[in-house]
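Local shape tokens:
==================
===
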Amino acid sequence: MLQGDEAIGDRARDLRQVMSPPEITLWQILRHRPGGFKFRRQHPSGPYIADFYCHEARLIVEVDSEAHSLGDRPARDEARDRWFSDRGLITLRIGATDIQKNIEGVARQILDTASRRAGEDTSWTS
């Protein structure tokens, strides 16, 4: 399991208390271990905090609001995704509006991705 330092861990705990409405909606599905997959919310990973993380599938799920398309956010998100990828993880970015409009479809997409990933050799060695 990837973990961050103490300051990142403290920030992750704080973020669990102020999740956005789309994150809360998605957590209401993921917390019940769909397909038997355990997800963690606001999980510290190195210098980052993943919105949701499934260790078994080596899957990061990020909830993206419109702000993710503004300013330097696209470049920052790309660097973050690359950092995760270099460690054998895949990042699935889900639009916040998609969660609010079609939670069942989003949940199915996440579960399908997790199932495929868990069926592959998702191990990572340094």
